[in-house]
Amino acid sequence: MKTYKLSLLAMAFMFLFTSCSKDEIETTEEANYSIDLNLAQETDWEIANEILVLINEHRVSVGLSTIQADQQYASAYAVDHTKYMIDVNGINHDYFNVRSEALKDRGAVRVGENVANGYTSAEAVVNAWLNSSAHKEIIEGNYTHSGFGVVPNENGTYFFTQLFYSK
Asked: How many C-beta atoms lie closer than 10 Å to residue 19's C-beta?
C-alpha cells in the first residue's frame, strides 16, 4: 500500500468513518499536518470547476452565499484522500479528522466532506449529492471554501473528494 503524506503523529489518532458525507469531528491532539501542495495539481480541474459552479448555483437558489475554490491545501488533502480511496477501491471518510484538523491549523473553523465514485460528469455527481440528505446538508452548510480531489483510477473511473470549510 502506498505511503501517504500524512505525518506519523497524525496517523496515530485517526479513526475510521464509512458514510458518504462527513461533518466536523472534534479532536484535541496536536500534530504536524504537512502535505505536498503539488498534489492539488493532480485533480481534474475542469470537472472540479464544473462541480463548484453547480454547487454555487444550488447555494444561491436557496439563499446561501457562494463558496470559493481552494486550489492549495484543501485540494491537496482532497487529492490525497481520493488517491487513498482509489487504492482501497472504495469510497470512505477514513482519516477525515486528520484533514479537518489540518485545515483548522490553517484557520478553518468548520470542515465537512462529500465523497463519491463512478460518476462520469460534474452534473451527475452533484445531482447524486443533492438527492442525498446527508450530502445536501454538507453542500448547504455554513462554508466559504472548497477543495477538490477529482481523480480517475487506472480504468478511468472517477473518484471524488470535496472538502468544505469556513474561516
From this structure: 14
Q: What angle do CA 159, 160, 164 make, to 5 degrees?
A: 165
DSSP designation for 64: P
Q: How far is CA 160 from CA 30, 49, 63, 132, 149, in A?
A: 28, 13, 26, 16, 6
Digit-coded pLDDT (tens) for 7-29: 322 333 232 222 345 454 444 44
Spatial contact of 85 and 91, defined as CB atoms under 8 Å apart:
yes
Q: What is the pTM of this model?
A: 0.81
In one-letter notation, the amino acid at residue 36 is: D
Report pLDDT digits (tens) over 87-100.
Answer: 999 999 999 999 99
CA distance 156 to 30: 38
Tell me the three state secondary structure of residue 165. Answer: strand
Tell me the pLDDT tens digit for each residue of 132-145.
999 999 999 999 99
Which grid cell is 159? Answer: 473518484
Cell numbers linked to 36: 505536498
CA–CA distance, 85 with 2 (Å, rounded to integer): 11
